[in-house]
Amino acid sequence: MELYEIEQADAVTRLSEIGKNTGDFLFDRAYLPPEPDGGGMFTVQYEVMITNRFTSKSLKVIGGIGWKWVDRFEDALQDGYFD
After folding, report:
1. 31: which DSSP letter?
2. How far is 53 from 55, CA to CA, in rounded Å?
3. Residues above pLDDT 90, as percent of the chain
4. Domain residue limits, the chain
């Protein structure tokens, strides 16, 4: 299972835990060009677009190792951003 899949499963769990309908949200991932981290390795990053299907409100976040997009998503949910 890829990192993104694990993170998306976590995001869906968090939706459920705060009482949101998980089917109301769409998650779309697009890989970004790799960036060298200075050690000859390339860090994979991706953009995640999360959309509430009923309000049409979207949030764009960056994912990958070290990025906490699921936390940012949960914060936005708690703040009522998607309502």
Report:
1. E
2. 6
3. 77
4. 3-78
